[in-house]
Amino acid sequence: MKATEDCLKDLAVFSRLDREEIKMICENSHVKSYSQGEIIFFEKDDSKNLYLLVRGRVKLTMLSPEGKEKVLTILQEGDLFGEISLFDHNPHPVTAEVQKNARLLTLPYDRLENMIIDKPRLALKIIESLSKKTRLLTSEVRDLVFHDATERMANLLLRFGENFGRKDNGRTIIDLVLTHQEIANLLGVSRVTVTKTINKLIDQELITIEDKHIVIRDRQRLEEITNDV
Q: Would you tell me the Gene Ontology cellular component terms (predicted)?
């Protein structure tokens, strides 16, 4: 129990909760570890849980009727998910798959409902999580409507730099390894287009590839690409 409390204290998502609220979360939830590639829940599953990603990474995806995968987002430590199906009482609209060995804290709906009644501030954190996803989806729609492949790629790299980047002598190393197909699924373009776009950005000396990691060399010029629209 103490280990879980200590872990939660370090998570920004719960930074405004006091010790009593954190203790309540620990007492009403359970922690489980998942290996890379494991499915937490499938699209159309009707499980009613709120998940907090304590360690690792999880990707949220959707499948078309033809079986084509669309990656909606990659979650990082401190993110909440599963909240959509909690409140509209419909099945999950996405599949949650572990992208990097993960440790999750799970809150069943019935316990969560009682906790929100006792501690309304917890509901604000869930609303914050929903707002974050809504903003992301709005950004993706804007990319699809107004941006070409290069501009979409620049936006994606800038976002990954913020969420998964680490600074290194003025550069940003994106601590996330994705295949060109996975990037294509995120951007809604073909794998060939992703390869051509990455090579174009490398030729322009905006990025490099080092040990399979994308390294942003010139953030300002990437931002200029996205602001040209």
A: cytosol
Between strands 49-63 and 171-174, the pairing is: unpaired
Task: Let me know: does 57 contact 98? Beta carbons within 8 Å.
Answer: yes
Question: Distances in Å between the alpha carbon of 18 and those of 77, 104, 227?
Answer: 20, 21, 41
The candidate with the shortest Cα–Cα distance to 179, out of 99, 112, 106, 116, is 99
The interaxial angle of helices 149-164 and 180-187, nearest 10 deg, is: 110
Residue with tokens 């809604």, as numbered in its chain: 188
Query: What angle (nearest 5°) sits at the alpha carbon of residue 81, between those of residues 1 and 164?
Result: 90
In the chain, which residues fall in CATH 2.60.120.10?
1-143
For the question of whether the overall pTM of this predicted structure is more than 0.85, the answer is: no
Q: Looking at domain 1-143, what is its CATH homologous superfamily? A: Jelly Rolls (2.60.120.10)
One digit per residue, the tens of pLDDT, for the chain of length 229 reads: 566 666 666 565 566 667 777 778 888 888 889 999 999 999 999 888 989 898 899 999 988 787 788 888 889 888 889 888 877 778 988 999 999 999 898 989 888 888 888 888 778 877 877 777 777 777 777 776 667 889 999 999 998 998 888 998 889 999 888 889 989 988 888 999 999 999 999 999 999 999 889 999 999 999 998 875 4
DSSP assignment string, 89-128: ----SSEEEEEEEEEEEEEEHHHHHHHHHH-THHHHHHHH
By DSSP bridging, strand 80-81 and strand 165-168 are: unpaired
CA 79 – CA 130 distance, rounded (Å):
10
